[in-house]
Every structure is written in C-alpha cells, then in structure tokens.
Amino acid sequence: LPEYAFIGRSNVGKSSLINMLTGHKGLAMTSQKPGKTQLINHFLINESWHLVDLPGYGYARRSLEQREQFRKLIDQYVTKREALVNLFVLVDIRHEPQRIDLEFINEMGEKGIPFSIVFTKADKIGKQVQRDAVEAYQSRLLEDWEELPPLFVTSASTGLGRDELLDYIEQLNRMIAELEA
Ligand code: GDP
Hints:
A hairpin with a 3-residue loop joins strand 3 (about 40-45) and strand 4. The chain has about 180 residues and is an alpha/beta fold. It is about 40% helix and about 20% strand. The chain has 5 helices and 7 strands; from the N terminus they run E-H-E-E-E-H-E-H-E-H-E-H. A 7-stranded mixed beta sheet has the order 2-3-4-1-5-6-7, with helices on both faces. It binds guanosine-5'-diphosphate. Guanosine-5'-diphosphate binds near residues 13, 16, 121 and 156.
C-alpha cells in the first residue's frame, strides 16, 4: 500500500496533526502493531494507505549517538522504502526558516524524495501573518531551489488544512492506482 510519511522536529505538532488527520469521523485507523512503541509507526487509513509516523530529527535533548541512530533510520526509510509516495515535512509557522529544517529539506531535495511542507499551528497567528510567513519560507527555499514543493497551512486546533492534505493524498493515490492499472 502507498505510504505517506510525516516528519519534523520535536514539538512541531506532529502528533497533534496525525490525530487531526486520523482521529476524526470517516477515517478508519488501525496501528499495525498496537501497543508496541516503535521508532517508525504505520497506521492503516481507510484500508487504502499507510500514514507513517517518523521519528523527529534534531532532538536537542538526545545524545549524539541516538540522534545519529535516528538519522540513519530516517535516511534508510526515505531512500529505500519503495511504498513511500510523499514525505510531509512539518514546520512551525511561527518560526523563521530554521537551519535544521532547511538542511533536512535540502537533503530530501538532493535525494529526489518527493516532499511537501506542512506549516503547523497556524491558529496561533493571524491570516496576514500566515501569508507573510509562507511567503518568507518560499523566498528562502527559492534561494536554493528553482521549484517550490507543495505547501499546506494547517492547525490541529481548528482543523485548518485537514481536507486539503487528505485530498492531496487521495489524489496521489488515484494517480498511483491509474498507473498500476
Ligand atoms: P510533536 O512533538 O511534534 O508530536 O508535537 P505535539 O503534537 O505533541 O505538539 C506540541 C505542542 O504544541 C503541544 O502542546 C500541542 O498542544 C501544541 N500544538 C500542536 N499543534 C497545535 C496547533 O495546531 N495549534 C495550537 N495552538 N497548538 C498546537
């Protein structure tokens, strides 16, 4: 089944976003191995795709050794996993583009891994500030890249961006189904 992975720094709002995407009406979610804490968790959605919860990168409070272990794990997953369709990189909309995120994004771009950027916690700022933040991020990305990835503005508190994200995933699923037919 196609896989869609979510990643970001700790505290970016990844768990909240995953809950927003899966915890509501209409989406049947089951964990593949319930009750087991794993570094990479798969959730089956609508019996048609897997939502993959990847460990965060750049936890300041973890040991160097553990961070390196996480990096290896993430790197293996994104480069080797054939079922991976798209990686959603989460960034807090209130923060200026951070080096650690930009480095990760650039690495994904260099490796040719399809990714999108998901801005989280949009409810914490006003509409105009949201637009400015997205524009600033786009400008920063265009310093390194000629093309922009898809961008989503979300809030786990209000549900903003939920339909857009799920529609995007369904659209990719349909494309894959057509290609395989
Ligand atoms: P994770 O470490 O990336 O999984 O982040 P969490 O989902 O645990 O969220 C970190 C903190 O941010 C928690 O206190 C959440 O309540 C808060 N948070 C997450 N998403 C949102 C959001 O969309 N809006 C607001 N206002 N707070 C959020």
